[in-house]
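Figure 2 data, in text form.
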Amino acid sequence: MKRLLAYHPNDPAQAIYRILLATVALLLGFGLVVQGPGPAIAGLWRIFVSPAALITDYIQVGGLGGAFLNAGLAMLLAVLLTKASGARFGGLAAAVAYIVAGFALFGKTLPNMLPIILGSWLYARFRKEPFSNHVYTALFATCLGPVVSHAAINAPILNTALRLAVALMLGLIIGFVVPAVAALMATVHKGMLIFNVGLTAGMVSTALVAILKNFGWQFGAVSDSWTTGNDLLLGIALAVLFGLQILTGFVLNGYSFKGLGKLRKHSGQSPSDFTRLEGLPVTLMNMGILGFMMTAYVLAVGGALNGPTIGGILTVCGFGAFCMHYYNVIWPILGIVLLSFVSVWNLNEPGILLAVLFVPCIAPIAGKHGPVWGIVSGMVHVSLVRQTAVNFGWLNLYNNGFAAGLTCIVLLPVINVVIKELQQAKEQKRLANETK
């Protein structure tokens, strides 16, 4: 297996590249086989020409075949773009590839991603910087792909060619603006928010939607796009993927789980590349464990495996290579679960399920400041995420990332003040004891 993956402990980049391509092959293969090539391709086209506002389950729009074909193609684009740019294949590359694949099950398509990526490439050229410096931000920024789709399909413009031109222009603007804003947003949360572009995209899309409303644009959520009834088939498919990750890591680690426990020592504060900190084998096992954990949660609360929920599961799995591990994600999730006992909502509601699946993006709060603050962060996050999507017309796929960013803005100053006061009180008590 080491030879097959070209794995070298001191430089796992080639192995990561091959593993990501293997994942692409699994997604594409599943998409082509589960319904057959003809229906899958027809479903893929329906996805390409559909609106992408939250929450659009592409399994409902294009069938299982079309949805997973779209996910595989989107992930392939991410992997090849990373390779072509010259960026290093590490934990962040894996995380980006998986989040792109996940969200290609409910919102991202090649047509709505490409204009945004081109806009970020133009930003790099404008700055006279290599695109490798911005490729990951460009791929994250495709969370605003629904803006492109909405403009191309639903913009209040009669001429089709003009709608497409406006869609292209908006995509280029988004791709150009997001990298500049993201650099500023990163200083706000100091690495406690893993989805930095989620906060950025929320700010950009809120402003953009407000401007477009001046010209009569209308925005609304997709409330009836949530498939059920595929739990067994999709559960088996996910089990194969996550099982292969754990098995591959186990074999590369000398048929051992040694080192897996060391992940708990890392807070997950971004950037935390686990492929560098603990090695690729341990990282792969962590990814598989997280995948199983999140899948088990969805099924345990009576949720369904579909495009949006699998998108969340794949995202957490991917970020098992970068900042998230089996321990720091537990606490914000627990916060949501505990709040559910006194709330008017249920844990198996679509919006709440997605809140749980994406709340690990603030797992570093628990990793750095402890379980109690992790639990509090989950409670604050789920409260905010139920209100934020309307601000940007349901066109920011990283709604949870935006809400998590607001959680950081609200909660981190409080945490810092409380910790500082407790430390000062402790120090005063120590000095008082020494003087006795």
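Caption note: The chain has one domain: 1-325.
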